[in-house]
Amino acid sequence: MPNIDFPVQIALLDDHKLFRQGIAFILKTLPYVESVVDTAELPELLTAFRQRVPDILLLDLQMPGIDGPEVAQRLLQEYPDLKIIVLSMFSADKFITQMIKLGARSYLPKDVDQQQLRRAIEEVLTTGYHFTDQVSRALMLSVQQPVRPAAEPAVRKDLVQLTPREKEILQLICEGRTAAEIAEQLFISRRTVEGHRQNLLEKTQAPNAAGLVQYAAKHGLMEKS
């Protein structure tokens, strides 16, 4: 288990009571989870936020009278440090890319198993994101559009110089690897991986790991040379 040495509060927003109860039961077994806020409606969630902003929000996309993307955008404008993990029955690429671009830290199907959910939560807490292969693929496809000749100068203009090691780490991030997995594969420390990741964010001006994936896809850096 990664080193999570602080008590964590997780909130749920989903209109299916039995689903919420099952997820809440799982969450309460995690040793670092201090409390779980179980809500079915947005006003109820906002009331809880006034008491304490949770570390993570597990958000359903479609509920009666609630638009998931709009909720995410509104909450992140007011609480920019909130880490949102989407749990949804919708798996189309357009939903995934929309939510990641809005600022969600991960996107999981509702039939995710207990181990996958725990891994996603722990990676979001420790690295800030959790990308499955499906998320990485959706982000890559979202920027792989035919480039017209007139647009070529604009595409190359924002291409920055990356070291061979930075390119290697960027490719592994695009594959959805965690910092720990990258460190193990490259025989370097996790701290070194995080340093390279921060350099990549600064060089590419990407806001997060989703931005790094988009940058890599846009500039043809997804494949290993």
UniProtKB/TrEMBL annotation:
The keyword Phosphoprotein applies. The modification 4-aspartylphosphate is found at D60. GO terms for molecular function: DNA binding. Residues 9-125 form the Response regulatory domain. It comes from the Bacteria. Residues 155-220 form the HTH luxR-type domain. InterPro entries: CheY-like_superfamily (IPR011006), NreC/VraR/RcsB-like_REC (IPR058245), Sig_transdc_resp-reg_receiver (IPR001789), Tscrpt_reg_LuxR_C (IPR000792), WalR-like (IPR039420). The keyword Phosphoprotein applies. Transmembrane segments: none annotated. GO terms for biological process: phosphorelay signal transduction system; regulation of DNA-templated transcription. Signal peptide: none annotated. This is DNA-binding response regulator. It comes from Hymenobacter edaphi. The lineage of its organism: Bacteria, Pseudomonadati, Bacteroidota, Cytophagia, Cytophagales.
